[in-house]
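Researcher: Here's a chain I'd like modeled. Treat it as a single chain, no partners, no ligands.
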Amino acid sequence: MGTAVVSADRPVICLMGPTASGKTELGVHLVERFPVDIVSVDSALVYRGMDIGTAKPGADILERAPHRLIDIRDPEDAYSAGAFVRDACDEIDAILADGRIPLLLGGTMLYFRSLIEGIAELPESDPILRRAIDEEAAASGWPALHRQLAAVDPLAAARIEPNDRQRIQRALEVYRQSGRTLSDWHSAARGSAADYRFVKIALIAGSRSILHERIDQRFLRMLEAGFVEEVRALMARPGLDADSSAMRAVGYRQLAAHLAGEADLATATARAQAATRQLAKRQLTWLRSETGLNVFDPLEARTAAAISELIAARLNE
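Model: Modeled as a single isolated chain. Structure tokens:
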């Protein structure tokens, strides 16, 4: 275990990266090298019973490197960036109070940004307005509503897929309810970062093709491990359906479509692999817009050592 001196200004290490970039393995290495405790930053790992398709760390890894904010919700429950910020701050404060260092590890970039830059207090949800938006979508399709969003809030539309029902609905709801775009609300929250010193580290592979190969092979291993059966069990729960937030996670929605008879397994597999590659692309786009980022290639042999050297230097500043 390292003997780094913890700074009095509340340091928090953020280890970010796209899916399948090796964050978990590096996190375990850092736990064994520094007095750090891991806080998961992943919108799918919060759900119990979603283990295989989320690449949730196994019992052996969790014994060596416990992760906070894993398995804290049932998949029927909603979980938001605001809920994450509240939960993460509680965990960070508890870790710091114990004289240890929080290590935020994950790939949900919205959660990282909401914590680091502050999060807007958005208007409360309006069920009547939501139903009206749903009715419009039923008549014209979600891509048409995505075009509406692009006309009023191009920044938000660029981050949202044309068929992402939940996020399109929320962005339009906020705009119609308040007269301000979602991007405006988020911009107003900037500069309200929590009272921590963030050390931001990103794993970005120099070879996109190798990352894609890792994504594709990992999904095949998930299938071998029983991913279809996991989705079947989830879909049997009375409170879950294909539109539930948890079931819209990459991989889950494609296999749910397969189990509904909408695609054979080979087609669902290809779609899930493609969707995961698109997720990685969006994650990389987010990362490239981050400031103060320390970037490392996870495919290079000295990456773990180089990151350890950076952390030791930052903690002793």
